[in-house]
Amino acid sequence: MRPRYPGYARPDGGGPAPIGVLVSNLGTPQAPTAAAVRRYLAEFLWDPRVVELPRPLWWLILNLAVLPLRPRRSARLYARVWGRDGSPLLVASRAIAAGLTARLRERTPAPVHVALGMRYGEPAVGGALRELAARGCSRILVLPLYPQYSSPTTGSTFDAVAAELAGWRRVPELRTVSSYHDDPAYVAALAASIREAWAAAGVPERLMLSFHGLPQRYVDAGDHYQEECLATAGLLRAALDWPQERLVVSFQSRFGRDPWIQPATDATLLRLAGEGAGRVDVVCPGFAADCLETLEEIAITNRERFLAAGGGELRYIPALGARADHVDALAALAERSLAGWAPPLPV
């Protein structure tokens, strides 16, 4: 049987061709229940970019050890941060996409359509691309909401885009944003959010920048993620004019038994508590939107452990989300990436 390759809609009228922007984030379960979390984890953890183990071996571990036990525990954690509108990551990602739509329509004369597609779960990358195709977008920019590139996040998103487009009759012209870890507007938005927090509640003894972790062997194999995290940290420290000795850079969310990049956030916070640290402010610059790893892991669990170990106060400074300066930074990034596709506004 021959494969059927669908096409996409032709735009009506004689104006500029519409441009699509696919905004992508990691994804989320549909509900804070063991069944929903199991479905989500089964898709997420089966991705060979996320867990680089031989498939037969990993299938046994995943299905006999991880999925029977982890979903119930993770569901309880999701329930601690789940909001009235649902998953905090999905709510925030939708708000970012909506803000980006408004900014690009103000600043770009060509019709621009923004669609949100999560790498895992719903709304999916494939559905978002088909939504853009239905609007007649023959040119699509892929903008993953990961400031620092890594294979399991940005690389996997590009895999999902390629897998979807492999079934299209006419593949659209495509551009991608691989990283924006050193983008001045992104760094400025991070610095502004921290200054606002300090203006409201004072300056801490230590500032911790906690990035998501990655297995050390991925970095050894050539992933530039850790390097880009450290570059972001250096630029942010300079923007804040913050003393190097009072800055801590760490990595969180370890999974499995492999060594991960160091230092670990949880162990570092316990060390700081043991040293008598009074107040530590934690920022997660690698997360564009708040999620389980920031709202539960940092703001609840690690805070509780820090206080129990003798620390004075731990405050989590929220992710940028749909802040105006963050959305402006993403819009400017998209505009630069669309150069040549969208004619400039008349002066």
Summary of the model, kept short:
With 347 residues, this protein is of the alpha/beta class.
From the structure above, extract its key features.
2 domains; Rossmann fold; 347 residues; 4-stranded parallel sheet; alpha/beta; 15% strand; 12 helices
Q: How many domains make up the 3D coordinates?
A: 2
Helical fraction equals 40-55%
Q: First CA to last CA: what distance?
A: 55 Å
Give the strand content.
5-15%
What is the SS-derived class? alpha/beta
CATH architecture of the largest domain: 3-Layer(aba) Sandwich
User: Would you tell me the overall average pLDDT?
Assistant: 95
Order of helices and strands: EHHHHEHEHEHEHHEHEHEH
CATH topology value of the largest domain:
Rossmann fold
Largest sheet: 4 strands, parallel
- Return the CATH class of the largest domain: Alpha Beta
Low-confidence stretches: none
The global form is globular
So how many helices? 12
Supply Rg: 21 Å
Count every beta strand, where a strand is a DSSP E run of 2 or more residues. 8
Q: Strand sequence of the main sheet, in spatial order? A: 2-1-3-4
